[in-house]
Input
Amino acid sequence: MHGGSGMTVSKLVSGVVIGGALLILVALLLSGPHPSQELRNRIVCMSNLSGINKAIILYRSDNDNAFPWLNDKITAWDRTVVGTNRNVDPNGKLDDPNNPRPRSITALMFMLVRQDQDPGMFRCPSDTGASMDQEVKAMKDDGDVAQGGYYWDFAKPENVSYSYQAPIWKDGRFQQGADSSKFDTVVIADMTPAATNSQWKPADVSKRSGSAIEAQNSPNHKGKQVNILRVAGNVGAAKRPDVGIDEDSIYTASGDPNAGSRSATSLDIRKHLSPSDTFLIGPVGRSEGK
Output
């Protein structure tokens, strides 16, 4: 089973209320006088995150209040966060040389799909390179796993438009990145620029504006907006990526849990040391130019 510190009932209720209000807002705006397609897309994207939040609440209720997480049997996140690993059980036997138990950030999000959530929630309508999983195999019984009838991840990185909180490197091992006691941590948001551009380099965003900020923002909405879901369950939208707990960029790791990553430029997962150093990652391996 999973472990995790408790989240107050008031916080959970608050997240559900906010989600309900968001859906009402979506209905009102979409029924208005011909909003632009991009505005519609942004609203649907926020609705996706609200739905993902409800799915996370259900997941946590069944898993000791923990966020989606793979059993930490090996410390291999640093070399297996690339791409998706649909057909390989990440929780296989430790002594099986033919099963490296690859971990990917998208597999964490896919845990919600395995609990009968719609895979379409993970596709932002403004992400033109995305496509929805057409076939999702759920586990019916233990025999399905042995027969290879159970998917562990999305079919490909293009099936995911969002990034998830990376594992934390602490005491020589990777630990769950999302901490329920850190209510303002961004747990999921529009995907990182690194997902679609392998040449992307993070930069200090504290003194930037205009196109310089857009280059550091998610590509989902052409750098104009990033939709975020925080641990407390509230969904919001921002114009800049430095919306972490310490006003750090949610797409870079700092290496200094006391300073945030506003002036940091690291994409090294081992420099993600604290929930206060927000660091979203995945889906890595997206086709160039998407």
